[in-house]
Amino acid sequence: MTFTAQNTAQAREKNQSHRPKEENAKTDEQHDAFKWYWMSCIFALLITMYLHNSWRTTEIPDHLIGHTSRFYPEFITEETRIELVELVKSMQIFKTLNKDTVPVNRTYKNVGEAMPILEDGTCSEPFFIPTLDGTQCILPGRYEMNRHWMKYGGLEGLKETYEELTSRIKFFMYARYVFDIKNHPVVKSLFYSEKFIKAAKEICPAHKQVLDPYQFIFILQVPGQTIPIHLDPPYFDRTSRYHIPEWLLIVMIGSGLFKDQMHDHVQGVAYLHEWNTSQNAGNFAYFDKNEIVPSYISPNPRAVMLMDGSKTMHAAALYKTEVKPPLLPETAENELKFNLTDDLWELRSDEKLLKKYKTSELRISIVYRALCFENEDKMKTFHEWIHSGENVQPLEEILEKLKEELVKAKGFSRKSLDTMSKFDLATVLVDEFVKYPLPTNSLFPYNYCFLPTIYPWTESIFKYIC
Ligand SMILES: [Fe+2]
């Protein structure tokens, strides 16, 4: 010990011996508290690091990675883009999906989870939505997507309430899907351009080179909106969205048990807005590798992304990250209406004007899809079957196959699967077979602000931070 250090130690000892005993005890207590504080911090940090690493491990099944996709930065001409925007304006009214959108002739409208609607027209369980006739509540078509979105807050790991997150994904569309392609020459030109045919055939399997254009949809988004991670509902040999709920089609894809019966398709996502991506984000994201960080492409005007959206998980990142969209209640009629007199889009919820947007402020895209067939005969057979109502795979047969897999590969007891409610069964199927990745950069991936929706007693805790 040096002279100075020795002196200091002696001085401290002297000081302590002169201090009252209570004061010494207090100092020791403070020292202990300080020590425990830091130990807790280090422990919490280690736990967070461990969890962070574990939830960054993705579980995308092998059959859903490595599929061909193509990005073309300048695929459609400027004239076509302008013509499509004019078509959008002429369609004038775009609405959000609120109530159930089950096709009236769907063979199985739900899997048995339907429950009575409440007197005020709402549903008692989170996620459930009223049926079109307003007599019951059932799980929404995209239950698997909505559940993941609410639990994790999407690519960005948002921590927001149910109402806020719902408003972010309620994009606007003219009709759910438009099938009368021939009535819209400019859309028809998208499908029949040599460029599209050549590029689309690269996405279809080599032995399925007959293209069958079958639908398109315009998607309008206001600043602050996004599209959660999802797969697109496919057609199977004996079932489709006209026969069972979409979320079950996605479960079928995820399980890998029905992949030989799935129809291949190619979808183009074309961007029609005027703005450049650098200031607005809203990138198209897709998971072509089994990694938590997706590949991104910029949604620049005239760009097109081509892929089979039933084979590769994809999403749109937040458009204008700093903006929160106006609240769009689930029970309200929400619409974006183009006003020809002032050239502005009016966002209304139950007739109440919430905000006005210029066309240049919107994120506008068109999604157009064509099926891939081996030959004309197979295409004809498919068309004859799809609305015939014949040779439809029974719902029980699908559920049976999935249950067998849950027992064989996931360790579930058959008895528990047979006795649980159909709502619980739907949730088990979604959680076990649909493995959308968790937020890319979030330290804590769970959206705790969703808890008050499931457990109302937690509202008093979370209202201060959410
Ligand atoms: Fe999609």
From TrEMBL:
Annotated Basic and acidic residues bias: 11-27
Biased composition (Polar residues): 1-10
UniProt keyword Membrane present: yes
Region called Disordered, residue ranges: 1-27
Transmembrane segments: 36-55
Keywords: Membrane, Transmembrane, Transmembrane helix
Top-level taxonomic group: Eukaryota
Listed name of the protein: Uncharacterized protein
